[in-house]
Design brief:
Layout lengths: L3 H4 L5 H8 L6 H26 L1 H20 L4 H29 L3 H32 L4 H20 L13 H23 L5 H20 L7
Helix pairs in contact: 3-4, 3-5, 3-8, 4-5, 4-7, 5-6, 8-9
Length: 233
Amino acid sequence: MIVLDLTVVNIALPSAQKALHFSNNSREWIVTAYALAFGSLLLAGGRLGDLFGRKRLFVASTIGFAVASVLGGAAQSFGMLVAARAVQGVFAALMAPAALSLVSTTHTDPSERGTAFGIWGAIGGAGAAVGLLLGGVLTQDLSWRYTLFVNLAFAIVAAAGAVALLRRDVSSAREPFDIPGTATATGGLFALVYGFAYAQNHSWGSSTTVACLLAGALLLAAFVAIRPAPRTR
């Protein structure tokens, strides 16, 4: 679902634009809103999995992703669609690290774990291409809205499978949530992702692009500088 949604909506953009009456310049925000939320909150999502338990966070974020997808598919305005895509990105940032860590903790045998990560990588690599194909089929045969509604089917299977098959894990965090570190890391990643997205549709020499990339670099440098030193035994 996470990789699929980076591309599945792209094919549906002209149809969505016609239905919701937004400009060509606004198209990019339907893709960028998802990427911004996902990229900037990924580190925080991993930390929250440590605090609240990976299985619990995975199931909750999968359901949240599905709800956001349904709201996006039912959107009656451009603003509602962009907001739904941003919320999708938030839940994707919670889901991805939880899912990856669950693969690691569920498969403890080295050879079994290698196979599991191989399957994980293959599905992730194919997701972008499948998204383009699936987006075209759904848009042509049904409606652009089904490029978002389709996530509901994936989410039901994933959440039900997780509840039934995964063992419950406990919090592995021994340190409190690092608010300054989270703020600088999230802000830095947000600025970098926005800078790259802005440069794609404008120019690398644009003042906005340069300012965002510089701010991102400075915030990530601050994150490294203020992070707590590792404990020594």
